[in-house]
Amino acid sequence: MGTRQRLCTGGGGRIRAGAWTTKTLLMTLAVMVTVLATVANGAAVMSVDLGSEWMKVGVVSPGVPMEIALNKESKRKTPTTIAFRNGDRVFGEDAQTLGVRFPANSYGYLIDLLGKTIDNPMVDLYRKRFPYYDIVEDPARRTVVFRTGDEQYTIEELIAQLLQVAKGYAEDSTGQPITECVLIVPGFYGQAERTALVSAARLANLKVLQLINDYTAVALNYGIFRRKEINETAQYFLFYDMGAYKTSAAVVSYQLVKDKATRETHPVVQVLGVGFDRTLGGLEMQIRLRDYLGQEFNKQGKTKTDVFSNPRAMAKLFKEAGRLKNVLSANTEHYAQIEGLLDEQDFRLLVTREQFEGLCKDLYERVTAPLDKALAASGLALDVINQVVLFGGNTRVPKVQDILRTHIGQELAKNLNADEAACMGAVYRAADLATGFKVKKFITKDAVLFPLQVVFDREGDSGALRQVRRTLFGAMNSYPQKKVITFNKHTDDFEFSVQYAELEPVVGDAVGTVDLARVRLSEVAKKLKASVTENVESKGIKAHFLLDDSGIFSLANVELVLEKTVTKEDDEDESTFQKIGNTISKLFSGDATPEEKPTPEGVEKEEEEATGAKESKEEEQPSKDKVEESGKDAKPEANETVGDKKTEEGTEAKNATVKPKIVTLKETIPSKVDLTYVVPLDGELFEASAKRLAALEEVDNAKKRRETALNALESFVIDAQVKLDEEEYASCGTEEEIASIRKRCGEISEWLYEDGSDADAETYERKLDELRTVANEVYARHWEHQERPEALNALKQMINGSEAFLRNARNLTKDTNPEKDVFTAVEIETLEKAIRSTIEWRDAEVAEQKKLARNAPVRLTVKDITDRMATLDREVKYLVNKLKLWRPKVKPTPPPKPEKTSGKKEDEKSSKEEGQEGEETAKEEEPVLEQTPDASAEEPTVVDAKEEIDPTATEKAHEEGDHTEL
């Protein structure tokens, strides 16, 4: 197989001795079947940790454990920077390099601009930090747009291009197309940021399986490698992260929980409390150090130009400040050095760690605040926390560690990969959500940071309208989950809004608008009039809300709930089809009894019951709007069927009377949702952005194709000129052929350095094909002469094996061994003729080939040899398969006659034992051929695409008894 493939591609591979034995053929078949099964059923997935400064990409594919995808520089993380210059687009380190020369064309630290309007405080802070960017307003959505000359790029388009790069790295790593991903986001991302990131992923042709919070991904990664340490007793950990842009802390618990529905026990990691500071990070420290270096340069008075007025000089200072910040984490002092900073003046300054810490003194005072907020939100004291675990690049700063260590009074845990922990946890989650992977369940329960509430107007007893607020998803409530709110008093079309609730002033400014959506309900009066009759009563309008596992809120549906009183006569008249319809309606509407309702995995607190009780005291009327939670926290209402059944049973016991049957009916209420936060990129705007990105991708592909074609042509010309100077190649061509190749190479070489430097990809490819046509005849002869000895050696090995097989097969015919007549005389003779004809053909062809010169047309080709090998192999394989299927003929043994005496019984027993020994001897004497290809040694194996993946495979290789499945 390998030889034939190389023949087709023109490669220089060699045939190994014995490559065409039966065992090798079967092994090759098994490998092919495995690969085909994997490709057909498995699909790789990825996770992307799209940080402010760096981007990490995690991948997992069938048969390959979780790993970090390398970029084109073979590095594990890539700067989240993109640059444009003269129609070219570059990413990562190339973009950073270009950004030093042209800072206005290189964009970085983009992630916190998602979902922000132009007047958001975070946008103002970005402008202050990077004054050389031209940021304008999107006229349709009021979002951030970067302008460079005539080109404009929305923030979603820039993020989408970074995701496309991540997708390319993942596909190069796995060798498979990637369409699904899990993206890591900061926990403080609101609805606008999350929906904007999903839109950017759609632009990159990626399906988002989930948006996972960074601390949740880290906690999941921490848990899967310590699964054995988790038990029924809750263990509490605090994860502290300081990245480039922000700082966060999260208190989580690990516990084994038994699922009530499946009766299975799984580990659960639940977020209990979160605190964050979205402007405290390494970037702010780097900005302050940049400004300090700029001020010191101005003080030196080397030039009259203010360094802060020159964008290129500011970009150089920013880059040097980043390097200096990292060096001062390990050294007490270091020199800042920049050649030609401004007006060709060099800059050199000694900076101590003490000076650097003095610049960030007020920042260090904010280091412990997120930790304290997380503890307060969780309701736990510091002494119950098992460990405080660090992650994030800027937790390496010694001052930050000293402050945290002093504050908590214990050592900090540094046993996580600060850069990759979140990415590896997210890729585990991606494998869990994607098809094609079998994983060990590890349940994650995230927490709501920004509470959501429903606000609506209701008419009071005095007739005046008053505003009513109902909390849907309270702070630190677990999600994903569903909630239901019931409107009891509304009999006409009305509307309500969904808003953030109880936000701190600083948080509210960063989030932007508090309003999220406006919902308008129509046909309420029409539905009530048509549905409410003498025996049908309205139970209110129920609006179903969903907070999915990405933390994105949505309105699922709105319905009018009715209760119909069915008498015995009505019940008898109800047709079978109506009963079936009602049953199906209940199943799909989720209106099941508590026993019928599915229970989510894990255990949740029933906060809503307490909230509802508190709110009910504030209401004057007994019939009020209520909030219900789907799942475990849901409680059956007093007027629902379950309650009626219980009351009915009690009444029957007392007075033996039968109450009418209550049937629940539902009518869909039309609703229109208008988002009031930053409008997601959709519709015509999305299509326009997709076209712009497609045009950029087309330009990049054309550029790559041209570069590849140019490199291939140059390489072939140089390689041909070198080979023709070697005797082993030159001897394979005639003088005319060699001269023609040299002439053609010279012409192309001159053309490349003159007129061909600006040619397109098609021209380079055409000239390469022309040159290959001239040179391939000589190359083919050289390849034949080089590979022929190996092919002949493989043929010799096959002939020897076939002859050995033939010698043993002669003893398995009817004439030589009547009891073991496996083969017929015709079969033996056919194999003997095949071996003899192969030997004669080989000897004759080798002799004729030796008479020819190396530059003469080849007579004995490698393909001829492999064809002969295939013919001989077919004859041997036929007999081998027949031998595998052959079974000795066993004569039936008549049943023994019953004997009366004990002596006869003993004789019978002895006779049976002798018969068994005879059968065992017959089995041992089955024909065994020496040097027979072991056709049964390797059987084709199909690997299930749903493979179990060991996340610890990269750390523990086949450690017996300590295997953790993904």
Automatic annotation (TrEMBL):
- Enumerate the residue ranges of region (Disordered): 568-653, 888-966
SUPFAM superfamilies tied to this protein: Actin-like ATPase domain, Heat shock protein 70kD (HSP70), C-terminal subdomain
Compartments it resides in: Endoplasmic reticulum lumen
Q: Name one GO molecular function term.
A: ATP-dependent protein folding chaperone
PROSITE patterns noted in UniProt: HSP70_3 (PS01036)
What Pfam families has UniProt attached to this entry? HSP70
Q: Which Gene3D superfamilies match?
A: 1.20.1270.10, 3.30.30.30, 3.30.420.40, Actin, Chain A, domain 4 (3.90.640.10), Substrate Binding Domain Of DNAk, Chain A, domain 1 (2.60.34.10)
Q: Which GO terms describe its cellular component?
A: endoplasmic reticulum chaperone complex; endoplasmic reticulum lumen
For this protein, the record's InterPro entries field holds: ATPase_NBD, Heat_shock_70_CS, HSP70_C_sf, HSP70_peptide-bd_sf, Hsp_70_fam
Residues crossing the lipid bilayer are: 24-46
Example of a GO biological process term: endoplasmic reticulum unfolded protein response
- Renumbered to this chain, the Polar residues biased-composition regions fall at 577-586
Where it mainly occurs, coarsely classed, is: endoplasmic reticulum
Keyword tags: ATP-binding, Chaperone, Endoplasmic reticulum, Membrane, Nucleotide-binding, Signal, Transmembrane, Transmembrane helix
Under PANTHER family, the record lists: HSC70CB, ISOFORM G-RELATED (PTHR45639), HYPOXIA UP-REGULATED PROTEIN 1 (PTHR45639:SF3)
Q: Which family does it belong to?
A: Belongs to the heat shock protein 70 family.
Record's protein name: Hypoxia up-regulated protein 1
Q: Which organism is it from?
A: Anopheles farauti
